[in-house]
Write a structure and sequence with these properties.
Blueprint lengths: L4 H14 L3 H15 L2 H8 L6 E7 L6 E6 L4 E2 L10 E7 L2 E8 L11 E9 L4 E4 L4 E6 L4 E6 L9 E4 L4 E4 L4
Antiparallel strand pairs: 1-2, 2-9, 3-8, 4-7, 4-9, 5-6, 5-8, 10-11
Helix pairs in contact: 1-2
């Protein structure tokens, strides 16, 4: 029997309640990969008929996690950013996305200033999922036709997040893409 969205949400909810830390989030990352192995799910939410843009397909009342689908026709890249106090899991459904981790070199005490440097990069191919913990700084490069599922610990529009400009050595709150 195929692993459906409803089963994923129930399993993620149970996991996050029983293991609220990094181990639970790693278990949810693996559940995202399991969900992406269901071709019917991928076709329904990320297939050729999927509307370009970002759609919230689940908000969990008990734990606060959100499941979003991102559909892109044209590739794009975003600046280094974090998800504030939230975590995020990106699960690639189609195309590819390059994820880059960044390191903050300053102590964060000077308002508006941030010295960040590029760290390791990895490429997500269909069926793979990557995880970022709260406060992790990362950037993404989305390929043409890329489609992915993103699971976040909360509604990112409801919490402060940061966007970094490595060239200007600055940080501000705001949108990531």
């Amino acid at each position: 029997m195929a692993y459906e969205l409803e089963a994923f949400c129930a399993d993620a909810r149970k996991t996050l309640k029983e293991q609220p830390g990094a181990a639970g989030r790693e278990a949810v990352r693996k559940l995202v990969e399991k969900l992406l192995r269901n071709p019917a799910f991928v076709e329904k939410y990320c297939g050729s008929g999927a509307k370009p843009g970002i759609e919230v397909i689940h908000r969990d009342r008990d734990t606060g996690f959100n499941v979003l689908v991102h559909v892109y026709e044209k590739g794009k890249s975003g600046p280094p950013h974090d998800h504030g106090t939230s975590w995020a899991i990106y699960g690639q459904a189609a195309g590819s996305t390059v994820m880059t981790k960044w390191r903050r070199l300053d102590d964060g005490k000077k308002e508006g200033f941030a010295n960040v440097e590029r760290g390791e990069s990895f490429k997500l191919a269909p069926g793979m999922a990557g995880k970022f913990e709260p406060g992790d700084i990362h950037s993404i490069e989305i390929g043409d036709g890329s489609r992915f599922v993103r699971v976040t610990g909360t509604d990112l529009n409801a919490i402060p997040t940061a966007v970094f400009n490595p060239e200007k050595k600055s940080v501000a709150s705001g949108d990531r893409l």
